[in-house]
Amino acid sequence: MKKIYILFVSLLVLSSCMGTDDMEMVNAEFPLGIWKQSSWKGETFDLEKTVKLSENSFGYIFKADGSLIQRSNAGWCGTPPVVTADYSGKWTLAGDILSIESEFWGGTQLLTWKILRVSNGKASIKFIDSEFIYNE
């Protein structure tokens, strides 16, 4: 009986160590690389990993050194056809919260995202907060 108890406790301890840690998954796949916006619904949106960003499309290039390129509207008008431009910035990841600071056509923007899911080259993101600091 004592051997069965020890075996059970050992299996329980080992199985608790084998669970998938979401942060490890996030660090392995996201945000490094090139990601295009694939859908937007309310406060959530999806990004899809790609090899390059198409002209006049929206997306992000996250670099390992914490810098980024954000492709977004080139000006204040969002009426199609939309013209995009590349803006430089930086990013940090703390747990499942991604913070972005980047330029935009009118100044600097601060974005906060919650990473909901990363799987098979796709990421689901919840938009948490944004702040726009306009140039004077």
UniProtKB/TrEMBL annotation:
Whether Signal counts among this entry's keywords is yes
Q: Which domain of life is it from?
A: Bacteria
Which keywords annotate this record? Signal
Q: Give the signal peptide range.
A: 1-19
**Know the name of this protein?**
Lipocalin-like domain-containing protein
